[in-house]
Amino acid sequence: MHTAVAAAPPPMAPMQNVSQVVHVNVGSHGPQKRWSPAVAALLSLIIPGVGQAYKGQVLNGIVWFIVVVLGYAFFVIPGLILHLCCIAGAAMGNPYR
């Protein structure tokens, strides 16, 4: 009869130090710009308030949408003026402050 003998596991190598370099941007630069004022203005031109939502200001965009639609519903000229203000507001300002 043959008996099987289990082989001993190989000896473990000593632990090696693993170094990892992590680059972190520190300073007053803040988060990188992830939005385009031109895209925000174009979106608000097509649908009022969508440019604000694109910037991350969703509630502001909803309010602009309601105000501009009401402006157009009552009179064309106030709606047009509000729409232009909405477009300008979408393109201006820093949403990361």
Structural class call reads: mainly alpha
Q: What share of the residues does DSSP label as strand, in percent?
A: under 5%
Instruction: Compute the CA-based radius of gyration.
Output: 30 Å
- The shape, in one word, is rod-shaped
Distance between the termini: 81 Å
> Helix amount, in percent?
40-55%
User: How many beta strands in the DSSP annotation?
Assistant: 0
**What are the secondary-structure elements, in order, as H or E?**
HHHH
Show unreliable segments. Answer: none
Largest sheet: none
Tally of separate helices: 4
Any overview of this molecule?
The protein has 97 residues and is an all-alpha fold. It is rod-shaped. The longest helix has 17 residues. The chain is built from four helices and no strands. The termini are far apart. Helices cover 49% and strands 0% of the residues.
